[in-house]
Amino acid sequence: MSQSTGVSARAAAPRRARVQGTVRIVGAGLLGASIGHALSALGIDVALDDTSPSQLRLAVDYGAGRRAADTDEPALIVVAVPPDVTADVIERELARHPSAVVTDVASVKLEPLRALRARGADLTRYIGSHPLAGRERGGAIAARADIFVGRPWVVCRDEETSPADLALVEALALDLGATPVEMSPEDHDRAVALVSHVPQLIASLLAGRFLGAPDASLGLAGQGVRDTTRIAASAPELWVQILGANAEPVVDVLDALAADLGAVADALREPDASGSRRTVADTIRRGNEGVERLPGKHGQNRRFETVVVMVDDTPGQLGRLFGELGELDVNVEDLRLEHSPGAQFGLAEISVVPSAVTRAVEGLEERGWKIASTTND
């Protein structure tokens, strides 16, 4: 969140889109409508279609595109429908629009491809893809043009993919601010099992334990448990389809995780036994090392320090904090807010580069801010 040093007297010229011609989007839910918003903002003709008339009306009313017409001749078709009908819609779109390149944004790539191959579909104009982006809420109302910015967009090419068709799908990702990443369908599905599908299950399982917990226990919940269970609010109907379509890689990760949990549980049953403390310590250490491998801001493996600032729960305080950090020449790399139950203040956890910690802490304290702590992010 860099601080601006001034306002340009002339508005920046609109960015020229890489994708040209009409883009047909089948499925006007969260991803489909979000793609429509982003492309429409670039001046691209977006034609929307959806089996739900109300969903389609909402997406059009909110500006994600126009209603598709029978006379449309799209250059690119984006299929953004639930996983259980993805293969059906891809097959239909390939047949209806013989000159268009067809891609989809389903979160599982191998199962639809196997289904299409089994039906004998001509897949020379089909390229599977998947933007690693989304929100806990779904539908056209939740759509946003910026949810793809800075996110990976997996593109699954094969030996039949023409360079021109591949370039068109990658141009779509780039127009939406995403970063194209080429992977095989098998590698993609194994990857998302680990970084997306199993985390969803873990979050849901942990949040499910809250159902029988006393209110007093839940009143102690802090930002850590909220971060861990944030994605547990996702739609069950969609995840039943996703997990069923990617069951084998998900089961592999779950089995390995179950073995790890079993080992820790055994160690804690006899915490004074030989090797028990080492098992627990190694578990925490491996977690530290795993977190270190996750890309940070802009995909960098760069670690930050966290400065925790107490902020009064009154209008304008957060804006003042950002403004004074800008005056101190401290860039905010990330931000988390935690409200204290029953208290009129919150905690702003601000991630900064290590070299800026001392400047931020001393400068904020001089300006009257109370620093709760500084930690490794």
Automatic annotation (TrEMBL):
Enzyme class: oxidoreductase
InterPro entries: 6-PGluconate_DH-like_C_sf (IPR008927), ACT-like_dom_sf (IPR045865), ACT_dom (IPR002912), NAD(P)-bd_dom_sf (IPR036291), PDH_C (IPR046825), PDH_N (IPR046826), Preph/Arog_dehydrog (IPR050812), Prephen_DH (IPR003099)
The UniProt record lists the keyword NAD: yes
Keywords of the record: Amino-acid biosynthesis, Aromatic amino acid biosynthesis, NAD, Oxidoreductase, Tyrosine biosynthesis
Catalyzed reactions: prephenate + NAD(+) = 3-(4-hydroxyphenyl)pyruvate + CO2 + NADH
Ranges for domain Prephenate/arogenate dehydrogenase: 21-298
EC number: 1.3.1.12
Domain ACT: 306-377
PROSITE patterns (alphabetical): ACT, PDH_ADH
Pathway(s): Amino-acid biosynthesis; L-tyrosine biosynthesis; (4-hydroxyphenyl)pyruvate from prephenate (NAD(+) route): step 1/1
Keyword Zinc-finger: no
Similarity annotation: Belongs to the prephenate/arogenate dehydrogenase family.
Cross-referenced PANTHER family: PREPHENATE DEHYDROGENASE (PTHR21363), PREPHENATE DEHYDROGENASE [NADP(+)] (PTHR21363:SF0)
Name the UniProt record assigns to this protein: Prephenate dehydrogenase
Organism field: Microbacterium awajiense
